[in-house]
Amino acid sequence: HPLLMLSPQSPAAESLATEAASRLRYAPPLQLGDPLRQMEPAMAAALTAALHDDTAPAPEPGLDGRDWADLESFVHGHRDYGNVLGAIWKLLHLCEVQDDQARALLEAKVFQHRDWSEVVASFKLQGRRQAQQALRTALQPLLSSQGAKSSMGGSAEMNQAGDVDGQEN
Q1: Three-class SS string for 80-133?
Q2: pTM to 2 decimal places
């Protein structure tokens, strides 16, 4: 498994490293069930223990600026599913998917953590690449209907009610 180490060399980099650590702290529960499922159990336990911090604040409900950026990047093909699973999971808890086929696909992969090969077979797709594209297509209307970050100049936050900047959509 790839390992990324941050060694901040400036106050701005220190701030970025702190934010990255905070976001990483809440990723393993989702990622261990999907992109990291092949990790040795002892390694997974060590990772979870190393990231556990009782003094760290819980993540805010809803989507923050980084989540929106991750979602936009994924939908446009610039990020892999495993790197944005947390943001997708949050979005799906805040929005209702109208299309039955899209809802079934998202349910199978995001909530049930079905293997890519199972998703491909179940939805009669031609491989993982096409399955990821189908996920991107399924998410696109949710981003559009929620006023995705890129169309709002990168400053909107979605609250619990699914509103952006407190205004109904």
Answers
A1: CHHHHHHHHHHHHHHCCCCCHHHHHHHHHHHHCCCCHHHHHHHCCCCCHHHHHH
A2: 0.62
